[in-house]
Amino acid sequence: MWDSTYPFVVVHFLQHATEELLNQWHLAELIFYSVAILISLWIT
Q1: Residue 33 is part of which domain span?
Q2: Structurally, how many domains does the chain consist of?
Q3: Secondary structure element (H or E) that encloses residue 27, with its range
Q4: Residue-wise pLDDT tens digits, 10-19
Q5: Model's pTM, two decimal places?
Q6: Which residues cross the membrane (predicted)?
Q7: Angstrom distances, CA of residue 11 to CA of 5, 31, 43, 44
Q8: Among 3, 4, 18, 42, which residue's CB has the most CB atoms within a 10 Å radius?
């Protein structure tokens, strides 16, 4: 029984981890763009 459910657990864990990484990357991207916009506004 454990052998049949194990792949599904691994896939679910990988999917969840990938979503967490993408969310963190998206947040970092938003911070990077907001800082870049603030710097460009401050320079001009």
Answers
A1: 1-44
A2: 1
A3: helix 2-43
A4: 899 999 999 9
A5: 0.51
A6: 25-43
A7: 10, 30, 48, 49
A8: 18
* Residue 22 in tokens: 């993408």
Amino acid at 2: W
In single-letter form, the type of residue at position 33 comes to Y
Report pLDDT digits (tens) over 2-42.
Answer: 667 888 888 999 999 999 988 898 888 999 999 999 999 99
Q: Tokens 């603030």 correspond to what residue?
A: 38
Identity (one letter) of the amino acid at 9?
A: V
